[in-house]
Design brief:
Elements: H1 3-15, H2 18-25, H3 29-43, E1 48-51, E2 54-57, H4 59-86, E3 90-97, H5 106-116, E4 119-126, H6 129-137, E5 143-147, E6 155-164, E7 166-170, E8 190-193, H7 201-212, E9 218-222, H8 226-234, E10 240-242, E11 254-257, E12 265-273, H9 280-298, H10 302-311
Parallel strand pairs: 3-4, 3-5, 8-9
Antiparallel strand pairs: 1-2, 5-12, 6-12, 7-10, 7-11
Helix pairs in contact: 1-2, 1-3, 1-4, 2-3, 5-9
Protein name: LysR family transcriptional regulator
Organism: Scleromatobacter humisilvae
GO molecular function: DNA binding; DNA-binding transcription factor activity
């Protein structure tokens, strides 16, 4: 059924005048009359009673009018929803992320995205890098926030944030008062680290950096979450290395100190399927880029600030 004919019928039924209905629809009167005749032929009954005195609805027309309005209303609502979906205004976004993203990086992204797209449902899934890569390939998550290197194989990426690892020390540690020190000075220290079974990129970087400095870290305790590692550092059970954005948090008893050595950067990537049709992905990427740029402008050496706050 031609929706234009339904619109013309509703206009005539409401105006009870072909001329006013045509003017309202911005067409000539003959077009309205012709289309309504075709609609009546399609339906098999008369909708309007035409006479010199004017236009009236037939019994069939008065019954059909609310149905025509309902059809047009549903079509318009459907079109609005599709447009909103195409613009990323509604829908769903499933985000996978590694544990350390919760430290000052992910929360502002989510706040900004919710402010711009409050009707998009967010589903958050903590996952390691390997699990996120598999989930992206299976399309069970829309966006991954994972450490470099890029997964490849039809998965697009962009850099979210990156910086060398910093030393996280008990506030009472002798090296905590230093502005910086060489990594080799931690050779005899006990480390608290992620377990190898977690397949953590941070762990790989720490082990590689320590090897370059001439030692293997002596593992005193293992934990699967960043906040647990920092709690162990605060309890003076060992030292560890953490991303720069983790140092923006100030857990009691922990001091962060830069390493003099040329440390490999720990980078977090936004990752998504290059063939994904979810428009909310592009919106989230723009929000992430703008949010991280603002964070870079207002960030003033958070590692030293954290360390000084802990020693004051």
């Amino acid at each position: 059924m031609d929706l234009r004919r339904l619109r013309y019928f509703c206009a005539v039924a409401e105006e009870l005048h072909f001329g006013r209905a045509a003017e309202r629809m911005h067409v000539v009167q003959s077009a309205v009359s012709q289309q309504l005749k075709l609609l009546e032929q399609e339906l098999g009954f008369s909708l309007l009673q035409r006479s010199r005195q004017g236009v009236k609805l037939t019994l069939q027309g008065s019954v059909f009018l609310p149905e025509a309005r309902a059809i047009l209303s549903r079509v318009e609502a459907g079109m609005q929803r599709v447009r909103a979906l195409a613009d990323g205004l509604v829908g769903r976004l499933v985000i996978g992320f590694v544990d350390n993203v919760l430290w000052s990086t992910l929360p502002p992204l989510l706040r900004e995205f919710r402010a711009k797209r409050p009707m998009v449902e967010l589903i958050l899934k903590p996952m390691d890098r390997v699990a996120q890569t598999e989930a992206l390939r299976a399309s069970t998550i829309d966006i991954g926030i994972l450490p470099s290197p890029p997964p490849g194989q039809e998965i697009a990426t962009s850099l979210l944030v990156g910086a060398p690892l910093l030393a996280a020390l008990p506030a009472s540690h002798p090296l905590a008062a230093r502005e910086h020190f060489a990594l080799a000075e931690l050779a005899e220290e006990r480390f608290v680290l992620f377990p190898p079974t977690m397949r953590s990129r941070i762990l790989d970087l720490i082990v590689a950096a320590c090897a370059d400095a001439g030692f293997a870290p002596r593992v005193a305790q293992e934990a699967e979450q960043m906040h647990t590692l920092l709690a162990l550092v605060s309890a003076e059970l060992g030292v560890t290395l953490v991303p720069e954005w983790v140092a923006r948090a100030h857990p009691a008893g922990v001091t962060y100190v830069p390493i003099e050595d040329r440390m490999p950067p720990y980078e977090l990537l936004l990752a998504w399927r290059s063939d994904s049709l979810n428009p909310a992905i592009a919106v989230f990427r723009k929000v992430a880029e703008a949010t991280m740029q603002r964070a870079d402008r207002i960030s003033v050496d958070p590692a030293r600030t954290a360390g000084l706050d802990q020693r004051s």
